[in-house]
Amino acid sequence: ETTQFQNLALAGEEFGTVPNLAHTSLARYVCVAPTRTEALAQADELRLRLHERRRAFARLRGDDPEALVLRSESEFIRTQTIVGSPDDCIRQIHQIVADLGSGHIRCTFNGTGTVDPVTTLRGMELFAREVLPIIHNDTSSEVSTSQDRGAHSHD
User: Fold this and answer.
1) Which of 34, 88, 115, 155 is deepest in the core (most CB within 10 A)?
2) Computed over its alpha carbons, how large is the radius of gyration of the chain?
3) pTM assigned to the model
């Protein structure tokens, strides 16, 4: 998605327009834990599980799963996640909004089914308790959650 946002901005420049990304949304896997080290370990495990799932889908399609390249840990974290302690997550959300201009972030806590329920709920509770109140009170950010829009999600 990050590349798509960048391509949209480039296309806007080419045609002399400025795309308003405030009404767009960006999805991120969220790995939040009391410590950055614990969250980074969760993110790396998620990266490996998602790669194995991609390989399984490739086999189902009749494609060669060996042709899939495992994303580096740094690329995965940079382009697909919000990861770290609650303070790290707050900084990353603000950075995403500042860099990309996206007004909405869809947070996925369960790795789309690859993270166990206990870890998922623990992360959701920590995020709800320590990240959301700060984001909601930060008037310099346009970040919103699915709860703001009346949606109910169990991601």
Assistant:
1) 115
2) 17
3) 0.75
